[in-house]
Structure formats: C-alpha cells, structure tokens
Amino acid sequence: MITQEELSVLIEQTYKVEKEFSELKKSYAHLQDTVEKIVEFLPNAIWILNEDGEVFLQNSQAKKLGDLKEKLHYAKEDYEINHDSRSYLVKSSRYQDKTMLSVTDITEQKRKENLATMGQMAAHLSHEIRNPIGSISLLTSTLKSRVVPENLPIVEEIQKSVYRIDRIIKATLMFSKGIEAHKSPFMWDELKKELMEAISYYGYTKEITFKLPNQKFILDADKDLLEMMFVNFLTNAIDAIELSDDESGEVEIVYENDGEFHIFTIYDTGIPVENPDTLFEAFASTKVKGNGLGLILSRQIAQAHGGDAYYMHGGRKSFQVRIKQ
C-alpha cells in the first residue's frame, strides 16, 4: 500500500520528468531548426535520406533539382554528372542509417577550365601560324608589283585573307598574354585614317556607308590597341550587315565628351544581336568569320584605358565605348 508521502514523491518525480522531457523536446526542436537553417544556408543542394531512400531533410536548392536526385548513385562518394546542360559535383557520405548527398553546380568552373585550355591551344597554334603568314604577306606584296593587271584582284584578295588571319592571330596572342596599355597623346584624325584603311582590307559584298566622327580632339591612349578595338566593332557591324536581307547598310560612330570620358557609340543597320548575354564571352561567337575574341578583347582594351564597353539595349542597335580622359 502506497503511503500519502510516497504518492507525493511519485507525483513530484512525474512532474519533474515531464518538465525535463518538455525541455528536451524544445532543445531537440531548436537543434532541428538550427540544422535546417544551416542546410538551407548552404549554396549547394543537400539531401539527407533515410535508410529506405526517402527524403528526411532537403534544402530549397535540392527542391529545384528534384529530377536530378533520381540520377544520383548513393554508393559513389565523389563524381561528376551532367544534367540539363549543367555540370555538377556529387559528394555522398553515410552516418548510421542516414545518407547525405551534396550536389554543387560546377558549370562555371568547368567553363573557365575549358576556356583556359582553349586559350593555351589557340596561343600555341597562333605562334605556329605566324611565321608562314608573315612569309605569305611578304611574297604577296612582292607579287603585287609584278603581276599582270588582270590578276591584280586575285593578289589583293590574298592580301585581305592574310590580313584577316593576322588579326585573328594578334587577338589570340593578346587574349592569352593579357592587355597592357602604353599611352601617348595623338589626334583622333590619325586613328580615323588607320581605321578606314583597315576596313578596306576587310572583304564585304554590300554597299556600306561608314560615318566616323569629324570632330578634332586628342586621345591620351594606346593607339594600336584602340585601332584593334574599333576595328573589332566595325568588322562586327560589317558582318551583321552582310547577314541582313538589305542590299546596303550603314555603320556610324558618334562621339561625345562628358568631361570625364571620351564616349563612342557604334551604330549599325545589320541583323539584331541574338543573345546579348554571351556577347562579351570568349569563344562564344556564332559567326562564320572570326574566333569569338573580338568583343571580349574590345571590352578589355576599354577597361585598360579606365573605361568599359557595353551593348546598348533598345532603340537602334549599338555598342558604347568609354575611354577615360
């Protein structure tokens, strides 16, 4: 028979156990909430699975990649997998009856690795091609003075082709080495003359009108680099006009000065840009001509002069270049 005193002690112990259980329950809930917040905070997709493969815990990144989960191999620890044109690094670990899967998007990292490899290969090929191209250029210059008049257009076409190859080689080597501007003052008219001469070496079939600034102003910049930059924009415009349905086209460079920057806006009447997001990405060109380095080099040249280059959305198709004064 339980005495009144023993019953009181039992009731007291029961309340004490209930209180401890309540506190333990709160601590567990707090711990679970903390774990969920940590898992949610992680930039990669996280799944924690029960022994039967059912999801015990996952973050929002994992929810977005729900269809990828079905492709994962739980037994493998570290491996790469491709899904929806993206590359992912998968890591797997096990603790007691739980399996944790971590999936990290490494698409950008792989792209940079591929670009670095392509840049190294392109630079090597450019070095190999440079000497024979130099010989061809010298021989065609000699041939031009000796050839019969009716064959002169053939020699001039060879010279234009060599010029285009030489531009690609220079761009590739510059991309692999990096850009350093050696500035000195010169008149815009000097650069304008060289640009018109460079355009004459670039082959095109349509009637294209070129309008370049007539203002007289001084640029404190690397003239050779600016020539390459503007030629890239001009030839890009020429190619866009060549691909259009119009029989003729127009390319215009408009100049203004805001007191801090020389601002050049390049307009053309060619086909619109298909994917503006990849315009300034190396080797991303969809054109038949060129090697996909022209626009990214142009931006780097502008940046080496304290400015930048942009694609202008809306209105007339245009690019804008800013050069620090």
Salient structural properties:
single chain; 325 residues; alpha+beta; Beta-Lactamase; Helix Hairpins; Heat Shock Protein 90; 5-stranded antiparallel beta sheet; 5-stranded mixed beta sheet; 8 helices; 12 strands; 23% strand
Descriptive overview:
- With 325 residues, the chain is an alpha+beta fold.
- The chain folds into three domains: 12-108, Beta-Lactamase (2-Layer Sandwich), CATH 3.30.450; 109-178, Helix Hairpins (Orthogonal Bundle), CATH 1.10.287; 181-325, Histidine kinase-like ATPase, C-terminal domain (Heat Shock Protein 90, 2-Layer Sandwich).
- Helices cover 48% and strands 23% of the residues.
- The protein is built from eight helices and twelve strands.
- A five-stranded antiparallel sheet has the order 2-1-5-4-3. Strands 7-9-10-12-11 form a five-stranded mixed sheet, with helices on one face.
Summarize the structure.
The chain is an alpha+beta fold and 325 residues long. The chain is built from eight helices and twelve strands.
CATH architecture term of the largest domain = 2-Layer Sandwich
The CATH homologous superfamily of the largest domain is termed Histidine kinase-like ATPase, C-terminal domain
Q: What distance separates the N and C termini?
A: 102 Å
Instruction: Please write the string of helix (H) and strand (E) elements.
Output: HEEHHEEEHHEHEEHEEHEE
Q: What's the structural domain tally? A: 3
Low-confidence stretches: none
Computed Rg: 33 Å
Helix content: 40-55%
Instruction: Note the beta-strand portion.
Output: 15-25%
Give the count of helical stretches: 8
